[in-house]
Amino acid sequence: MDITWDLFVNALLSGLLLGGFYAATAVGITIAFGMLDIANIAHPAFMMLGAFLAYYFNTWLGVDPLIVTLVVMPFAFLLGRCVYKLYYQAFERRSDESLQGLAFFFGVLFIVEVGLLLVFGVDYRFVTAPYIGPSIGMGPISVPMRMVVPLLVGVGLVISVQVFLSRTFMGRAILAVAQDREALRLVGVDPIWIKEIAFGIALATAVAAGALLIIIQPVEPSVGRDFIGRVFAICVLGGMTSLGGTVLASAIVGVAESFTSTFAGPSWAPAVSFGLLIITLAIRPSGIFGR
Amino acid sequence: MTTAPLLKMTGVTKRFGGFTALDTVDLELYPNERLGLIGPNGSGKSTLVNCLTGVYRLDGGSVVFNGSDISSFDIHSRTRIGIARSFQIPRPFKGLTVVQNIEVPLAFAVGMTHQREIADAAHAILKEVGLNAKADAMPRVLSQVELRKLELGRALAARPKLLVADESMAGLSDSEVDEILEVLFRLNGEGISIILIEHIMRAVNRFSQRVAVLVAGAKIADGPPKEVMAHPEVERAYLGQ
Amino acid sequence: MSATTNASSEVPSASAVWLKRLLGCGIGAVLIVLLFAALDWTGTDYAYLAAYTVVQFILLATAWNILGGYAGYVNFGTAAFFAIGCYTTVFCYKAFQLPLLATLPISAVLAGLVGLGTGYLTLRLRGVFFSICTLAMAVVLQTLVTNWNYVGGSRGAYILRPESVPLFGSYSRFLFAIMLAMAIGSVLLARHIERTWLGRGLAAIRDEELAAESSGVPALRLKLIATSLSGALMGLAGTPFPYFITYVDPTTAFSLNIAVNTIAMPLIGGTATWLGPVVGALLLGIIQQWVTVTISSSLNLMIVGVLLVLFVAVAPNGMVGFVQGLRRRKA
Amino acid sequence: MASSLIIEGLQAGYGAVRVLHGISIAVREGETVALLGTNGNGKSTLIKCVTGQVRPTAGKVVATIDGQQYDLVGRATEEIVDLGIALVPEGRRLFPKLTVEENLLLGAFRPKARQEIDKNLAFCYKTFPRLNERRTQLAGSMSGGEQQMLAIGRALMSAPKLLVIDEPSVGLAPILVARVIESIAELKAALGLTVLMAEQNFHQAIRIADRGYVLVHGEIALSANTPEELKQSDVVRKLYLGID
């Protein structure tokens, strides 16, 4: 195949755009898995929940999907706190999280997915918004707005979470909770409460990422499955605990997938993130950017 | 002494981040010797045990056992060549009965294959540590001193040349301490070298032929108990200046 | 390796053991004959197909439990091993016209090797990484198969199955017999593992890995054996599948639905013994066959999900553990 | 206003093992009280009863903070810290992958401490210049002595009235032990704290202690009102060195 300069730049650009969106999908899993040590396999299912809520209010009331998300996020935060409370009561408290807890989230994944399936059916659904459709063109390079908007929102989301984590008392406590849970009590913080809040935040970001997804492409409930491994791959690749690492890893995965689609064919793209994950686990389990 | 040492640790160093837990520690143990390893809390005793048994990889130095360098051996390989340990906090296999706990090392470390042989050997060991009445009990019903005995019994079942008893007596009453000491003396009488790590000085003094003192990751004294206890540096480490 | 010795603490006399075994075999044989008779009595091929599905889940659940229940590692990638079995069949059928029975050992070896490789990569890390890695492996393999035109790529492949098989009658009957034999074999294997040093070693590792290693248990090696065995059995489960549905494509073979069922069955039945996966598979399998016929198949997954969440949260020892608990309280 | 700690008839243990058999001690306003004894005699358990990490089976733990009385038994650790009782735990328990400054700021989580955060941070850096030099370094990469200083600093950030220190000398070279012990005395004087300190290093501890208790087998073997009294006691030598 000829690798033309235009093709190359286009692939790189769309990879970076994709990476921005991936960062939004992985930020929640970095919090839940990397910082709280909760392997929330159901994260992508909650993304789909966000996507379908955006779809529902968009078609019913004509509201912009991003505005829907802003309204829905506080509810997702509360839902996340409830899910964590349940998880804590049933598993963490009797320190049985490894086997049973993983299976728990796997079950939740299917409950949410099939729930959406029963309500919305198996057809692909999409949203309408002014920025879906037009592209910005610069010579031979054209950038669709439906990719630019998720990139901007995704980056904005990651930056706000990062600021929250590094500048607030609550944020620092979240960073600390995975390192030494009991020591957190010694500085006057209830670690269970911190984890509950953090898991709520993680779920809120999942819902937001779902709205971004449905802006990029039409979705049906099981699309979320494609993201299970991808978000974990990004999280592990990025070193688990740093959002900076997650953003870089997202960009790498986005670009790698985009190049693979362009030069080897889209059918190879799903293997990219997983391949990177397996290689990372084999060679350097602490991730590329782990410290 | 003219015999070759059973264990020779040379320049053993272990760091955790910026914290040096062991700094070029040398330690020797001769066949059938009883060594007491003491030192204030956090001085590196447990780290040394973990370096000896293979839980930690060394950042420097070497461990030679019975003439061969075992620095890169796995935990289970070290057990198989004759280094067994008991744990400070008892770690029984909760899902197995007392006698089944003992059978695990008999099968895996000693390599016995005949069930009847293994069962007989396990019961013999239980008798030796004084647990034969509880053979079919689950570990969760055992008392603290019984759990310590199970720890010792399981270590013993690996048929070791060297037994590392890591704080086997902490939290026990005086008479219980004596019970454990008796078991240890008997094992030593059967030819097993023993490293006793203990805070109970009475027990260390009574048991050890030689005492080594660790302070802040370094060995500061090594010799007969009386001499070591009178050593000004030891007194300083324990009592301060 | 001393993994073949019987490890039960009491050692009854040899003749008593043989008598008991013989009795067990006899009862088993009678039950199997009765089962075939009952299925024949329905007079439809469909009965065999439904029974095949249930028994296939017994095999998968038992396979999963060898690693998940005995060693405590969650495998999300059942579908990957299952699909290795499927596609070994497709490949061997297209390339050599190899019959099913000859394909079985090849699948087992391939799936076992993939299990070994995955285990080798991740078992030294924390358990959750193994779980994620199995998930990842399923997608990588699916992508490979999707792009492998020889076995049909994303379009899938057709398998022509013989009308009938001598001695067995219809091919459905034959497939069921094979699956039943493999399921029984897997349960016997699981029971054997439980009672020998492999199972005892795995139990010790699951309880206290450091203490197990200090007792001379080669933890990594035992876990790798479990991973390979578990993978090989899952591969076996997938091997007859193309003959069963006569058409197979990557989406079906790698479906996550297989994975969730395989996890749910042992956890609902109980992971501690060989009986748990069997009970769980029978229960869920029969419920699903019934729901598929009467309501809809998408509801199936909902039921599996809800039961899974309920059981792991409320009855972590599964049905078998729950019943044992009741009995102990009575006693 | 007065801050003090009274412990009466305290009993505690782990499972079947009883570690403390009826301990009564008092730490009065402005005092530094040392809990002495070798390992395994119950010092840490006593400290953990004060900080809510171990629940006593009998007895009372009552703290007075700024004239207000609180029964500590049954309260969670974080509640106790919130009252104004800071803990420097055994083994330091820092957050190794956070920077020095982030560790310190976490110490000021409780609302009352946040008001004084600038003042306390400046004070910490003044007292421990090493921490100031290394504020952006990860806590886990520092040496043992620096980590101990950070642990003390982190406790101070909660603006405590009562400081509870468990084995500050653990794992430190003798020279550093002296330095850490001295810094505790300095802090106490500068901030007007009341201090309860468990320490196995006898002579270092009594350098700064007003009074001391020696624990043997979970009971108080000696209660001394002056450091001199402790120095002259046979109990200590016998206990520490096993010399009869």
SSE inventory with pairings:
The complex is a heterotetramer of chains A (291), B (241), C (331) and D (244).
Chain A: H1 5-35, H2 43-61, H3 65-90, H4 97-120, E1 135-138, E2 141-144, H5 145-167, H6 169-177, H7 181-186, H8 191-216, H9 225-237, H10 243-264, H11 269-283
Antiparallel strand pairs in A: 1-2
Helix pairs in contact in A: 1-5, 1-8, 1-9, 1-10, 2-3, 2-4, 2-8, 3-8, 5-6, 5-8, 6-8, 9-10, 9-11, 10-11
Chain C: H1 14-42, H2 45-71, H3 78-96, H4 100-122, H5 127-146, E1 157-158, E2 164-165, E3 169-170, H6 171-195, H7 197-207, H8 209-214, H9 219-238, H10 241-245, E4 247-248, H11 250-253, H12 256-269, H13 275-294, H14 297-314, H15 318-330
Antiparallel strand pairs in C: 1-4, 2-3
Chain D: E1 4-14, E2 17-27, E3 32-36, H1 43-50, E4 58-65, E5 68-71, H2 77-83, E6 85-88, H3 100-107, H4 111-115, H5 117-127, H6 129-133, H7 144-156, E7 162-166, H8 174-191, E8 194-198, H9 202-208, E9 211-216, E10 219-224, H10 227-231, H11 234-241
Parallel strand pairs in D: 3-8, 3-9, 6-7, 7-8
Antiparallel strand pairs in D: 1-2, 1-4, 4-5, 9-10
Helix pairs in contact in D: 3-7, 7-8, 8-9
Concise structural overview:
The complex is a heterotetramer of chains A (291), B (241), C (331) and D (244). By secondary structure, chain A is mostly helical.
Oligomer: heterotetramer
- Name the average pLDDT of chain B: 89
User: What gyration radius of chain B follows from the Cα positions, in whole Å?
Assistant: 18 Å
The beta-strand count of chain B equals 10
What is the CA–CA distance across the termini of chain B? 35 Å
User: What is the fourth-level CATH superfamily of chain B?
Assistant: P-loop containing nucleotide triphosphate hydrolases
Molecular structure report:
- Chain B is an alpha/beta fold and 241 residues long.
- Chain B has one domain: P-loop containing nucleotide triphosphate hydrolases (Rossmann fold), CATH 3.40.50.300.
- Helix content of chain B is 39%, strand content 25%.
- Chain B has nine helices and ten strands.
- Chain C is an all-alpha fold and 331 residues long.
- Chain C has a domain at 44-255.
- In chain C, a hairpin with a 3-residue loop joins β2 and β3 (169-170).
- Chain D has a single domain (29-47, 75-241), classed as 3-Layer(aba) Sandwich (Rossmann fold), CATH 3.40.50.300.
- In chain D, the strands form two sheets. In chain D, strands 6-7-8-3-9-10 form a six-stranded mixed β-sheet, with helices on both faces.
- In chain D, α3 (100-107) runs parallel beside α7 (144-156), α7 runs parallel beside α8 (174-191) and α8 (174-191) packs parallel to α9.
- Classes of the chains: A mainly alpha (291), B alpha/beta (241), C mainly alpha (331), D alpha/beta (244).
- The A-C interface holds A 39, 41, 86, 90-91, 96, 98-104, 106-111, 113-115, 117-118, 225, 228-229, 232-233, 236, 265, 267-268, 270-271, 274-275, 277-278, 281-282, 285 and C 68, 72-74, 76, 121-122, 125, 127-129, 131-133, 135-137, 139-140, 142-144, 146-147, 154, 256, 259-260, 263-264, 267, 271, 298-299, 301-302, 304-309, 312-314, 316.
